[in-house]
Amino acid sequence: MRKTIAFIPARGGSKSIKGKNIKPFFGKPLVHWNIIELIGIDAIDEIIIATDSDEIARVSAISDKVKVYKRSAENAKDGSSPESFLLEYIEHKK
Predict the structure, then answer these.
(1) Most buried of 5, 10, 17, 57, CB within 10 angstroms?
(2) Residues 28, 33: Cα–Cα separation, whole Å
(3) Confidence category of residue 16, pLDDT binned at 50, 70, 90
């Protein structure tokens, strides 16, 4: 059976706004807004939160659809490309 997976990259080390992904935005952590929208899409079977932060991992667990992938520090740097964590995740799943 094929799964449709959505990925949300959520680094813990934002340079501009410290801890921005867990900061409240209209009553919810910022990362929740993306998760909530993706949960509502029936075609999406799984939502992967790719993070290097234990706190982001903790606040992201709001649905059975959500899984956390602890990405490496190397692929969570400010200059890391979006493709880098996707390739890491694929290698991890092999």
Answers:
(1) 10
(2) 8
(3) confident
